[in-house]
Design goal:
The complex is a heterodimer. By secondary structure, chain A is of the alpha/beta class. Chain A is built from 10 helices and 7 strands. In chain A, about 40% of the residues lie in helices and about 15% in strands. Chain A has a 7-stranded mixed beta sheet, sandwiched between helices. The chains are: A alpha/beta, B alpha/beta. Chains A and B meet through strand 1, strand 2, helix 2 and helix 4 of A and helix 3, helix 4 and strand 9 of B. Strand 2 of chain A pairs parallel with strand 9 of chain B. The structure holds thiamine diphosphate and iron/sulfur cluster. The site of iron/sulfur cluster has 12 residues of chain A, from helix 8.
């Protein structure tokens, strides 16, 4: 009998992920599931699936789930949390979902400091619909709707959601993380834990932005995609903390 | 039971509380703002939640979330706001969630005007959201009937796991009328909400609230299941009133405020010895098609009267199925007719039939 060194988190169902090889959605799911389990709140957690590649993650998380319309997950989360304040509520959203069609909903969930946790997966592209430009697509990045590379004169500069949301007084905890190597995966998990703890302690709106990869629509191998995260995305989207409850306590 | 003088919008809000409403999400718009304002003052006293959303789009998705978590939920708005809610209403119908939606209609299209109108008939009865779905829709005529149907609506929504819309015009919303909020309304036998996402608490497997069916066979099965439900609603929930039908030579079809004006017109006509009946749809979806089979043989024609340029008219034509001649009288944009205008329309039609 050997020691168990790795096992499926109880926060995940037995269903196999439907993500492409090398896609980091899977790692992010696992981190969220592990944290929910470790904090002992799995049986009172309600999650919200977005519209995007993770649309079916209500089948992957081993807790009650609701599937939301494109971009509306923060409003759905608000509705749930307001009538069931003792449950733990999180939304899981891509960058098309959160940074484009759902900007009003995320801004106002932060503005009201809804006591929810948002997992924001920024892969600089619309994965599910086949690789169109997102508001987060980098300058020069080729997508199916920016075939010559994103031109800032035409499409503006990529939006930095964490920085923007951090300007909202109601935002309590905001951190940007990456999962391109094991060290960063460990750091990312700490951030997810902190976000859920913020909610458990009733301190208000928490969001963790993951810089994520989409090897298929980026036209890269899984390893090249991770390198591209490190060399191109992180320099534009710096990792780190943008808002924390401690800082808010100091300013009170 | 005591009658009190109340403004329509406030009485509707109180009726919702009495119907067991535990959460309200909405966005301000004339002519219904007194309804959320009343709930902002009173909801917490009844253990309920009031929240002003950033938009109608957000409000209806909050309704989705709260309803999916088992609460009795209300939203209210007026025509352009209902238009924005259509996406969410389609998701609510698709995920089979209960919800009550009050639409205090105003004129359109576009920003239109803020005066009473029935120009939302198609928006209410045909949706506007995507997919094969319907909402139960009621168009009461006065404040008493409105509060009764709102109290009942929460049971109906839970019973069918479907949105229920109450469509009144701005006149009912704004008018002061004596009303009794404690009239008993029919109660339904309601199933447990074992589908609601409230946390497993170690007692059951996880559940999900969802309208996605990627496998076409699954989606067809789901759509057929919904269709069966709509058939049941058509069978059990058609609601209408007949007025003065005996020996009527003409039937007027009118609902809501227009039906009230028609009642006055019927009195004038009766004094002149002209016998005209009224079919007043109370449910506008399902439309009371049964009623068209109950007309007496004396009826020689149908006059449809609406506060629009003719929207319910299509349903009247479908139910009449070419049998009797149909005329239309409508005022719109917030213009409300005098009974005499309807009297004239009746006389014109009878003259033409002779
Ligand atoms: C109202 C609406 N508009 C558009 C779509 C089509 N659509 C599906 S997924 C998607 C983009 C998802 O991209 P993102 O949020 O970045 O998630 P990813 O797939 O990259 O994980 C779009 C536009 C939709 N389902 N609904
Ligand atoms: S398309 Fe991109 S984001 Fe979607 S599963 Fe595949 S790699 Fe992941």
């Amino acid at each position: 009998m050997g020691n168990v060194v790795f096992k499926r988190s109880n926060g995940l169902s037995k269903k196999e992920f439907s993500y492409c090889p090398g896609c980091t959605h899977g790692i992010i799911h696992r981190l969220v599931a592990e944290v929910i389990e470790e904090l002992g709140v799995l049986d009172k957690t309600i999650g919200i699936s977005p519209v995007g590649c993770s649309v079916m993650n209500y089948e992957f998380f081993n807790c009650d789930m609701q599937q939301a319309a494109h971009g509306r997950a923060p409003a759905v989360a608000t509705g749930i949390k307001r009538v069931r304040p003792d449950n733990i509520v999180f939304s899981y959203q891509g960058d098309g979902d959160l940074a484009s069609i759902g900007t009003a909903e995320i801004v106002h969930a932060a503005h009201r400091s809804e006591n929810i946790t948002v997992i924001f997966v920024n892969n600089a592209i619309y994965g599910m619909t086949g690789g169109q430009m997102a508001p987060t697509t980098l300058i020069g990045q080729k997508t199916t709707t920016s075939p010559y590379g994103r031109d800032e004169k035409h499409a503006g500069k990529p939006i930095k959601m964490s920085e923007m949301l951090a300007t909202i007084p109601g935002a309590t905890y905001i951190e940007r993380v990456s999962v391109h190597d094991p060290l960063h995966v460990r750091k990312a998990k700490k951030a997810v834990k902190k976000a859920f703890q913020t909610q458990i302690e009733g301190k208000g709106f928490s969001l963790v932005e993951f810089i994520s990869s989409c090897p298929v629509n980026w036209g890269k191998t899984p390893q090249d995609a991770l390198n591209w995260v490190k060399d191109n995305m992180i320099p534009y989207y710096p990792l780190g903390n943008f808002r924390s409850p401690e800082e808010d306590d100091k300013n009170d | 039971m005591a009658k009190v003088m109340m403004k329509g919008n406030e009485a509707m809000a109180l009726a919702a509380i009495k119907g067991g409403c535990k959460a309200f999400f909405g966005y301000p718009i004339t002519p219904q703002s007194e309804l959320p304002e009343y709930l902002a003052r009173h909801m917490h006293k009844h253990g309920g939640v009031f929240l002003q959303a950033e938009s109608e789009v957000a409000a209806i998705n909050m309704v989705y979330g709260a309803s999916g978590a088992g609460a009795r939920v209300l939203t209210s708005s007026s025509s352009p706001g209902i238009a924005l809610k259509q996406e969410g209403i389609s998701y609510i119908a698709g995920a089979e969630l209960p919800a009550v939606i009050i639409n205090v209609m105003r004129g359109g299209p576009g920003l239109g005007g803020i005066q009473p109108s029935q120009a939302d008939y198609k928006q209410v009865t045909r949706g506007g959201g995507n997919g094969d779905y319907y909402v139960l829709a009621y168009a009461p005529e006065n404040l008493q009937e409105t509060v009764n149907v709102i109290k009942e609506a929460f049971d109906l929504a839970d019973l069918y796991r479907n949105p229920v819309m109450i469509a009144v015009d701005g006149l009912i919303g704004q008018m002061m009328e004596p009303v009794d909020l404690d009239v008993e309304v029919p109660k339904r036998d309601l199933p447990e909400k074992d589908w609601a996402t409230i946390g497993t608490y170690g007692k059951r497997e996880p559940v999900n609230v969802n309208s996605l069916f990627l496998d076409p066979q699954d989606l067809e099965n789901h759509s057929f299941k919904l269709a069966e439900k709509y058939k049941l609603m058509k069978k059990n929930e058609q609601r209408y009133e007949f007025v003065n039908m005996e020996n009527a030579e003409l039937v007027i079809v009118a609902y809501g405020t227009m039906a009230r004006i028609v009642r006055s017109a019927l009195e004038i006509l009766k004094n002149e010895g002209i016998n005209v009946g009224l079919l007043r749809p109370i449910s506008i979806w399902p439309f009371p098609e049964k009623a068209f089979k109950e007309f007496p043989d004396t009826v020689k024609g149908i006059l449809t009267c609406e506060l629009s340029t003719g929207q319910m008219l299509d349903d009247v034509k479908i139910c009449n199925n070419g049998k009797l001649p149909i005329n239309f009288f409508g005022r719109t944009g917030g213009m409300v007719p005098e009974p005499e205008e309807i009297v004239k329309a009746v006389k014109d039609m009878i003259g033409g039939l002779k």
